[in-house]
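User: Predict the structure for this protein chain, please.
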Amino acid sequence: MKRRDQIKMTEDQIAAFLAAGQDLQVASINADGTPHLVTMWFVVRDGQIRFWTYGKSQKIVNLHRDPRISVLVTTGDTYEELKGVSVSGRAELVDDDTERARFAEEIYEKQWGPITDDSMRAGIQGMGAKRTIVVVKPEHVMSWDHSKLSGGY
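Assistant: Here is the predicted structure, written as structure tokens:
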């Protein structure tokens, strides 16, 4: 069996890995063709990675011009611990107030825990006023889990 096949995650493993992930590396393409790479917090809904950012940010400017996007989530401090999922595809940009409110609650609860009252909810939803949600529409997914090698190289 090829090493690539040995370390590939199953769809369930990919879903669990992404659900537990904290930081998302996001790459878009600048006007001059160079990559624009940043780190964002994210959630997974309906099997799709979502993050938000200010509507006038460089990544949104880039994605309006060219919707191609690559994202990456990784963990591990040693070779034997390395795990990751890389997704390439197209970005769908969402500027809907209802979706922004929903996303604000999702990202807050993932990062900080439950929303405990209506005033907290209103403040959290207010954070999204100038933001655009990016939904990554996957075209290619690649994964690896070096722990499956049981220490072998």
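The CA atoms of residues 8 and 144 lie 5 Å apart.
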